[in-house]
Amino acid sequence: MDIKFLTDIGFLIGSVGFVWGLKLLSSPDSARKGNAIASVGMAVAIIAIIFAPLNKGDNNYLWVVGGLAIGGIVGYLMAIKVKMTAMPQMVSIFNGLGGACAVLIGMVELRHFYNGASPMTGGQIAISLSALFIGGIAFTGSLLAWFKLEEWIRDNALVLPKHSIFNMVLLAIILAMGVYVYMENIDAGIGLAAIFMVLSLIYGVSFVVPIGGADMPVVISLLNSFSGLSAASAGLIYGNNFMLVGGILVGASGTILTVLMCNAMNRSLLNVLIGGFGGGGASSAKGAAGEQIAKEVSLNDAAIQLYYSNSVMIVPGYGLAVAQAQKVCKEIDDLLESNGVDVKYAIHPVAGRMPGHMNVLLAEADVPYPKLLDLDDANAALKNTDMVVIVGANDVVNPSALDDPGSPIYGMPILHVWDAKNVIVLKRSMRSGYAGIQNPLFFHERTRMLFGDAKDTLSKLVSEIKSL
Amino acid sequence: MDGFIQFFEEYQLLIYLLVFTIILGFEVISKVPTVLHTPLMSGANAISGVVVIGGILLVRQAESGDFLSLGLGLFGIIMGMINATGGFAVTDRMLEMFKKKKKK
């Protein structure tokens, strides 16, 4: 049989694998199978492209196989080694590399065009430029998102005065330049294309800079759809339908996912991008808060209250993840359950650093799935809950979101923990949360504070409960 | 406008493919429980590693003496492959955890 026919069938199988895999990925029972199917689709397509007959070039199989082997091994090791708490960073890095790959492809193909090695139609020039632009934003934007998640860069460190105007001007310059390079066709030269690329890379940074750390999940999701689109552009350069399908699928699903995440925070995408959080005005919270005093509770009291209550709701946040306290949390859960206490977990849609991140972390600690309540179920259940234990969460339980229009998180749906009879907040200090704003909940009459490292405090609670 | 019409007529099939794939992407994802947002994002991210196909094409189409293209292409393949392999592996790790407690 004809090799070209076989490899084309391979691409078709790969495309079906992607669509089918994504479909299965969107339901909990079949998700793992879906991921496997998508990866098989990718493998089939890679084999197909290795054997597909080309009408030019020297094949250079040593380079191809070498690159695949190095990339495969490095990627696999990174994925195996990474801690589950650092997941968002990892996704961000992977995503950035995909974008960088599209930039390289666009640049090399443009170079071939400008030095006369291979002709390009006007459409192909435009597509190459868009691969440079979108891929460039995905690359540097993802890197900055990674730095921000690691907290290597402070939120406002690089923000210029009038930053959104700067961004708009930069974007206008890039677009105008793109149009110019396109119009001039071969006369534009590789130099201009290179400047276009550099400006795109700068725009990626400048685009993410004003966005607060708490909004990084949305940004990563958006950049994910960008890297999909850049892959699709690269596919168009080569007229490869498989790359087009894969890239567009990611572009579309990434966009929907981004919108879903924004909805979970009750904010528009535009609002997130302009940087609603993290701005200098974030400290505008009620000045009166300073006069109030948060009340502390002793470990012993907390243990007794928990052990003899009927129902306990645990509200986990990123602090729990950072302290690696999921397992101790589960231990307390078991102890309380053995005394007939009904223990549930309230999972805010943006708990952790990504939607669903907290579910992954708790699943890692063997917390049964039915115990995790989503926002609406949790708020309904909170009215009949005796004790709420907040572990390392802050902004998602901040009542300012309901009653203080001046607060940066005003309008975000939150967990109404104060509906419960008592609230215990486990916290390292009175420092404000990730969004950098004061939380009046800590001064609420039903709230008691328990200071200390989350894991440490929870372990002490375990021994206190055991000794009861 | 003439240019646009010509473009549309010429690439009609491609435009169909584009439009239907976008609709498919929206449709497949639109009903997802929050629990799966992170694995789904990670899985979709792995799929965007398809760009590695372009890297392979680039290297295969290059002449064996064109070391700049070869070098950059190699770099591209490595990065695209990290994106794909790492993405799928890390998604599998996440989903494995959901599986474990299911057995109970």
Describe the protein.
The complex is a heterodimer of chains A (468) and B (104). With 468 residues, chain A is an alpha/beta fold. Chain A has three domains: 1-81; 85-278, no CATH class; 284-466, Rossmann fold. Helices cover 59% and strands 6% of the residues of chain A. Chain A contains 17 helices and six strands. Chain A has a six-stranded parallel beta sheet with strand order 3-2-1-4-5-6. In chain A, α14 (357-364) links the parallel β2 and β3 (372-373). Chain A is elongated. With 104 residues, chain B is mainly alpha-helical. Chain B folds into two domains: 1-31; 32-104. Helix content of chain B is 82%, strand content 0%. Chain B is flat and about 50 Å long. Chains A and B meet through α1, α2, α3, α4 and α8 of A and α2, α3, α4 and α5 of B.
Features:
heterodimer; A: alpha/beta; Rossmann fold; 3 domains; 6% strand; B: mainly alpha; 2 domains; 5 helices; 82% helix
Please tell me the total number of domains of chain B.
2
Widest β-sheet, arrangement of strands of chain A: 3-2-1-4-5-6
Kindly name the structural category of chain A: alpha/beta
Mean pLDDT of chain A: 84
Could you tell me the number of beta strands of chain B? 0
Number of helices, where a helix is a run of at least 4 consecutive DSSP H or I residues of chain A = 17
Radius of gyration of chain B, whole Å: 20 Å
Low-confidence stretches of chain B: none
What proportion of the residues of chain A is helical, as a percent range? 55-70%
Sheet of most strands of chain B: none
The fraction of residues in strands of chain B falls at under 5%
The sequence of SSEs of chain B as H and E is: HHHHH
Note the quaternary state here.
heterodimer
